[in-house]
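WARN retry 2 of 3 for item q-0093 after timeout on previous attempt; input resubmitted unchanged.
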Amino acid sequence: MLSESDQQRFRKALQGVVHNEVFVFNSSLGVTVFYLSEEEQSELIKETFLGFCHDEKLLKNLIVQECVSAEAVAGQIKTTLHYFTKHPQLFLAHAKKFVHSLRADMTSPVIVTILWKFFSDSLLQLVSEGKAPFPKKMTVLLNNGEYVDEGKDLVKELASDAIARNAN
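OK item q-0093 returned
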């Protein structure tokens, strides 16, 4: 969808618009934007994307997801992963790309922590239920993608704090 350098410039432009953490996930299926904000920013993000790409057709491939509602974000990740189980190669590529993007992002630690928690929980559930394609590869992906070696309690605490802070 976007080149690596365009994705970085787009993310920086969005940080200027949103004035907070922004995570941009760029895949062959489209661009998904996760952000933290006290206010709805979807229209500003869409305008920034349109101005950035100069192509209204690409706007159709932009998904804006607020990180204000933990349930909505967790639900979107779970729904996306469940959908991809029907397409094993797409599932593997999407999961690898998502983990790579999370690991590469050094500017949005709260969003990355929250997304990692929701993604890993959903993927672990699929693996344990026998619904995930390539379960061994998914287990390796999850083990190599850990952000906190001290244990998952810190990740849960960070995610809970971030969600509570943004729910007010």
